[in-house]
Amino acid sequence: MRYRELGRSGLSVSEIGYGAWGIGASGWVGATEDESVRALHRAVDLGVNFIDTARGYGESERIVGRVVRERAGDDVLVATKVPPMNRIWPAPDGIDPAEAFPGAHIRESVETSLRVSGLDHFDLVQFHVWSDEWVGRGDWLQTVEELKKEGKMRLFGVSVNDHQPNNALALVRSGAVDTVQVIYNIFDQAPADALLPACEEHGVGVIVRVALDEGGLTGRITAGATFPEGDFRARYFRDDRPAQVERKVAAIVADLGIAPDEMAENALRFVLSSPAVSTVIPGMRSVRNVERNTALSDGRPLTADQLAVLAGHRWQRNFYG
User: Fold this and answer.
1) Could you tell me if 16 and 295 are in contact, meaning their C-beta atoms sit under 8 angstroms apart?
2) Residues with Cβ < 8 Å from 30, sequence gap 6 or more?
3) What is the pTM of this model?
4) What letter does residue 302 receive in the DSSP assignment?
């Protein structure tokens, strides 16, 4: 496993991190706690030292906390998220910060997450949505600083709204944030235009989510794909979207000259080819997924020619809507 600096924090994180939404039985259907625990342990065995969870991920915080306590000697870093008090995802324009992240709500959420996880602190606490309209307004930053002084959190970050990377530029430039978590993948390359350079300039760590487009960039989403009832992917890949994805992925496979089952590997290597990226956090609900993804931390980024090919495969759309 290779490691990268998490911005100016002084912490080093495994470039393959662990996205723990899928193990919480919230949104993704099919995870079992036993397999999730085995997968988490295997990830730590293979050098993963960064796990990303959230208050809103069902049982995820509890499961992650259990494994991290069992691996107390391995210095695993845990990030969680505070949901907006108004429960609106993503944050729309015109919302006062007191409606989404008042100080009392932030404190209550963090303390609940600590209690549920059994941990004594989080290495990173992130707001689960963000709006740059909140820079310099509200009491959220004061509360964050208080929680840091109390030792309940080490770093502060935000999870940038889906497909809105420029909506965190003012925050990054303000110096108030340690990390940003953002969607960045072969289809959505927009963060590379302004956000990633700004993070490099200001020493802000970058955590990449949805590197595989919720499964679209694995090559396994094809026309007619179906998902279990209650699985959020049934909405994300509804109507003719699987057929659209299949066509887009087939074009990438053809242009790169790779086998279809090499799609996921190349999608993750695309993300890791950016020096601004600190870690990528694919969801890994099985030991097999852990072993496959961690094997990519081998120092072999895509070539300049491959990246030039992929630059032509941007696909501007929002399947979350």
Assistant:
1) no
2) 228, 231, 285
3) 0.97
4) P
Phi–psi pair at 310, nearest 5 degrees: -70, -25
Residue 47 tokens, joined? 């050098």
Cis status, amide bond into 228, omega within 30 of 0: no
pLDDT in tens, 203-231: 999 999 999 999 999 999 999 999 988 88
Under the banding of pLDDT at 50, 70 and 90, the label for residue 31 is: confident
Q: Say yes or no to pLDDT of 29 above 80.
A: no
Alpha helices in 177-280 (DSSP H): 195-202, 233-236, 241-256, 263-272
Q: Which residue has the tokens 């870690």?
A: 279
- Say how many residues make up the chain: 321
Q: Write 285-289 long-range contacts (CB < 8 A, 24+).
A: 285/22, 285/23, 285/28, 285/30, 285/31, 285/35, 285/36, 285/39, 286/35, 286/39, 287/35, 287/38, 287/39, 287/42, 289/39
Label residues 125-147 b or e (16+ Cβ within 10 Å = b): bbbbbbbbbbbeebebbebbeeb
Burial of 302 (0-12, 13-18, 19+ CB in 10 A): middle
91 φ/ψ angles, rounded to the nearest 5 degrees: -75, 120
Q: Residue 26: its pLDDT value, please?
A: 64
pLDDT (tens digit per residue) in 230-267: 888 999 999 999 999 999 999 999 999 999 999 999 99
Distance CA 122, CA 309 (A): 40
Look up residue 150 and give its amino acid.
Answer: E
